[in-house]
Amino acid sequence: MEQTTHWVHNLDPMLFRINDQLGVGWYGLSYIAGFYAALAIHYLYVKRQRSVLTAAQGETALYAIILGIIAGARIGYVVLYYGLDRAVADPLFLFRVWEGGMSFHGGLIGVVLAFTWISWHYKVRFRQLADMVAGLVPPGLFFGRCANFINGELWGKPSDVPWAVIFPRSAPPGTPVTEIVARHPSQLYEATLEGLVLFTYLQWRYLYTDARKYPGRIGSEMLILYACARIFCEFFREPDASLILGISRGMFYSLFMIVAGVLIWWRSSVDGPLDPPNPNAQEQSPQKR
Prior knowledge:
Elements: E1 7-8, E2 14-17, E3 23-25, H1 26-47, H2 55-82, H3 84-89, H4 104-122, H5 126-134, H6 138-151, E4 165-166, H7 186-208, H8 217-234, H9 249-271
Helix pairs in contact: 1-2, 1-6, 2-4, 5-8, 6-7, 7-8, 8-9
């Protein structure tokens, strides 16, 4: 292999392969890891009497959220990035998930729909539920972005920083390594900010502050902080679809999250605190939503 001053990405997207097309991929495993992490965190919430659901209710709710995430993320990618006109011309693309394409913003819409059902089914406040689930999301984002890096996809913009990476897939097949430009490992930037940093902040807010007394406050902070982290990382990430108003689609869609987060935060302040704050579901009576 030709000599280069930057590390050449050569990681296999499959943990193990059955053949060239089939195997166990890191991206699929990232979803499984994220779901199990969410279960573990919710179990901690239940033990500390911080959950608005019981452990059994939480497991059922998580299945609804999983369905919302997967369906929303895939449909969201098709509509927001791939192109609805192309999807209409090739409707089976929606089901060819191995060809890639999952959208966080679409997954968020799917989660909101799942929340609506869970809130109605278990008679809990929508915003209280959102506050609790907000802290369950970042581990999945962390694992997903790490899988993006392992897959060598969603790479960053060209850069000469010492930690820049050469992604062979960013150039036409057969291009010599020495002619491939090094890029920001923006997937790892997103894993750090959207995953680790956001997770740490939300756990502190939910477990060690009185923010739970204001339904919607933690959920709104999650929307705002994720959107800000995403916009920041988009400055280092190569756009994977056409621009909107001169900015990447990730930036554009995140602006709506900031607006929504600010409105929800304002509403939580207007409504005032609960008494008692966010009671455990086993002791909670139905409340007006």
